[in-house]
Write a structure and sequence with these properties.
Length: about 240
């Protein structure tokens, strides 16, 4: 390999590495990525404000497509999102005794999630879930006097306002699946962010997003080398 100067070296080619590489290359950094072209498992990309802003930066907003259908199964309950019927009709069919209350609750979470996303973006970056993420979220929003205190309460207490037991079980399954951890561990703020992302009617196609990142990386003169080059350089230095 000929001699070159690089600002940043990236080892591996995960979706996150590709994203970082494309954005850094666009910002004018000289990048070299060491990676094999190996197919990685498909990723689920949430349609968050953060992701839409990234698409805008990379000129790929046109890649948004209708969100795929998603079924949430819990016991005898089967409810479909982004399908043939609006969410309100799905709720009425599965939970006739409390569908209005359930719909209002989910709409309230969506509205709060949209507000939180906007405030988080304006406060320098996306949220992180978990303990560290909650501290970051709390610090940012308290500094902005956004009334975050009320959103620090556990999500499961909020969900207990639904009297129907089957509806509460379905909600618990929904948020546990989204967070990949028990819903009782989530704050109301985290639940609002998760539901807002899931309820978006458009989604980001993972395969085309990967292609966009590769195109932008090459366009801004990012360079790709096989990891074998590192071994060759190591062997050469040992001679």
């Amino acid at each position: 390999m000929s001699k070159h100067h690089y600002d940043i070296l990236i080892l591996g080619e995960s979706l996150t590495a590709r994203l970082a590489g494309a954005l850094l290359a666009k910002a004018g950094r000289r990048l070299l990525t060491f990676a094999d072209r190996v197919e990685s498992p498909p990723a689920w990309l949430g349609n968050s404000l953060y992701m839409r802003q990234i698409l805008d930066l990379l000129g790929g907003r046109h890649q948004l497509a209708p969100a795929p259908r998603l079924q949430i199964l819990c016991g005898q309950t089967r409810l479909e999102l982004h399908g043939c019927y609006p969410l309100e009709e799905e709720l009425q069919r599965e939970f006739p005794s409390c569908h209005e209350q359930l719909h209002q609750l989910l709409q309230w979470l969506k509205t709060r999630g949209e507000t939180l996303e906007q405030q988080l973006w304006e406060s320098a970056g996306p949220p992180l879930f978990g303990f560290v993420g909650e501290l970051r979220l709390g610090a940012r929003l308290l500094l902005r006097r956004s009334g975050y205190r009320s959103l620090r309460q556990p999500l499961h207490r909020f969900l207990q306002e639904i009297q129907d037991l089957e509806a509460r079980r379905w909600l618990d399954t929904l948020f546990s699946g989204l967070a990949l951890q028990p819903a009782r561990n989530l704050t109301l703020a985290e639940g609002a962010l998760l539901w807002n992302n899931l309820s978006q009617t458009q989604a980001i196609a993972e395969s085309s997003f990967r292609e966009l990142l590769e195109q932008r990386y090459q366009q801004f003169h990012g360079r790709l080398e096989s990891p074998d080059v590192i071994e060759q350089l190591t062997n050469a230095q040992s001679l």
